[in-house]
Amino acid sequence: MDFSNKVAVVTGGASGIGRAVAAAMSRRGAKGVALVDMSEAVEDVAARLNSEAGRVFAIAFQGDTTEAKFRASVFDAITHKFGPVSLCVPAAGITRDDLAVRVDKVTGKARIYPLEQFKLVVDVNLIAPVYWALEMIGRIAEDRAARGLKRWNADEGIQGSVVFIGSISSQGNRGQVSYASTKAGLEGAAATIMKEAIYYGVRCSVIHPGFTDTPMVHAMGEDYVAKNILPYTQLGRLIRPEEIADAICFMLNNSAVSGELWVDAGWHAPA
To answer: How many CA atoms lie within 13 Å of 161's alpha carbon, on the beta-carbon side?
Structure first.
């Protein structure tokens, strides 16, 4: 899996899967990676990755991935420094877990999942990733038009690749009505974008990780992990971010890969 001379954009790059993807790209010779995250820690992460690589390839961008102007500025800056972006892994995501309906034991009144929370999760986990992908595809399309190229031909080689971060929760998971909805939504978005973007030579797919050793999973609480995740995981442990990153690099690199890849470590939700 050789990414020599490739330029990538990775959101959610300050930790977890996003950070692991950037490191994996470096080992495979990526020319440049835009490391995007809301956390100011992204600066230190980029510095450490560059130090480990012995070269400057990771450029940190701190900002809100749901903002269109920020998104465009990231693509402008990384393209100016390293060249056109052809790999995109929009990995930024959040959870706001709670039961869809909960009855108050005192009042007997039902409380439904807060609408504002649902909209926030949709903005971050579904709309933003789609538009980071479309930003790259649009720029590739513009470049082709400027060179007088129309429908892509296989002899040209793949022009770009996108991998969305789905989840095993897309199959349904108790307490994750908003999160699961967004991850299932990415399946439909990716399938549609693939049918359109291949006109410009861009592939699009989805990886569905199982429970991975990331801050997001640990935020559920160690007791929750021990009682509700590990007993139902055939692998007997959380997946390492590096394992997911290797799978993502495989999906980005192999032109025959399309659709969805389940990397779930044999986890099956209890009834």
So the answer is: 21
Rounded to an integer, what distance in angstroms lies between the CA atom of residue 136 and that of residue 161? Answer: 9
> Measured between alpha carbons, how far is 101 from 262 in angstroms, rounded to an integer?
29
Q: Which residues of the chain have pLDDT under 50?
A: none
- The predicted pLDDT at position 271 comes to 61
Q: How many CA atoms lie within 13 A of 271 on its CB side?
A: 0
Q: Are strands 101-103 and 110-112 parallel, antiparallel or unpaired?
A: antiparallel
For residue 36, list its beta bridge partners: 11, 61
pLDDT at residue number 227: 83
Spell out where the chain has E strands.
7-11, 32-37, 58-62, 87-90, 101-103, 110-112, 160-165, 202-209, 259-263
- Measured distance CA(259)–CA(249) in Å, rounded: 15
